[in-house]
Amino acid sequence: MDRLxxxxxxxxxxxxxxxxxxxxxxxxxxxxxxxNAQFASMAYYGIAGAGLTILIGxxxxxxxxxxxxxxxxxxxxxxxxxxxxxxxxxxxLLAAALVTLVAGAxxxxxxxxxxxxYLAGATLALAVAVPGIPVxxxxxxxxxxxxxxxxxxxxxxxxxxxxxxxGQDMSRSRYLGYLGWFCLVVTFVLLANLARGRVxxxxxxxxxxxxxxxxxxxxxxxxxxxxxVVSATCAGLAGGLLALSARIxxxxxxxxxxxxxxxxxxxxxxxxxxxGALIGAAMLTFVPQLVTGLGQDLGLTDVRAAxxxxxxxxxxxMLVVLFAPAGIVGGIRAAAARRRAVKTSxxxxxxxxxxxxxxxxxxxxxxxxGGGVRRG
Length: 376
Known about the structure:
two-stranded antiparallel sheet; 17 helices; two-stranded antiparallel ribbon; transmembrane helix; 77% helix; mainly alpha
């Protein structure tokens, strides 16, 4: 495996990214429009969750307002798609990320002096306040109804390339799935390299011991602001993809519930790990639909079946917190570590037993085949 991935961190991450995109191609081409739309949703949840797990898991800052940053990215993309001849989608998504970067820098500088519950309270206020801005500027941002988002036509070169590889025509939902997962893979590669490099070590140092980090020459404020900016940029990109997938940017889609769901997703998957963020995004995407369908099969009405989804998600969160405090990924890693420890302990016992037998042989001597004894 090491030969395949290589020793270089960047080469390893790029190899995993290529393998991941091959899996994405197989999955998207073998599923229908509904599943394609679900995988697109999983992509933007994964991007937002990855940014949040970097902020909380690596840097130790608690944020309850990432739904607000997703709203900034979504409305930026929606406004840029209102014209008759919009810019290419990669440019629009980049603009959504950059606008949110600026907003994240402003909030990050203001929140750099806050810690723990004070920072959580400040970001909570942000999550509550931002959805009210479109209502106040209803003439530009559409008010309660929001802005309708028209997805541009699929680029001919992309449709031709996919048809050449797969032999299937490109649909709009599949195109958004490809776009979302490409953004997710690029984001994960960048974040993984940041986390494994000097910046990531700085964030961990600030999280683990602020006094020691400051004595080591680390600028605590700069480290916190950088983590906040990176996390907000990811949320802005995710918001732009959400607007494209939902085809609307409305205040009702960016309430406090969204911020809390993102937080619970990374806690479920495993705080501080990108794999955990992806697992949490999958749970956010597929658990509600799965539980609702199960409730309907059991004879419940549509309303009651829909109410089962948050109940089930809450119960799963409670169970994971009780039995796997480090999340699903953390629980798997802990189980693997215990298995290795037991195996190592068993090997050590066998080694000690062999050493004891050698000592006994050295004292009593080894018997010859003829029955005599040779003294050591």
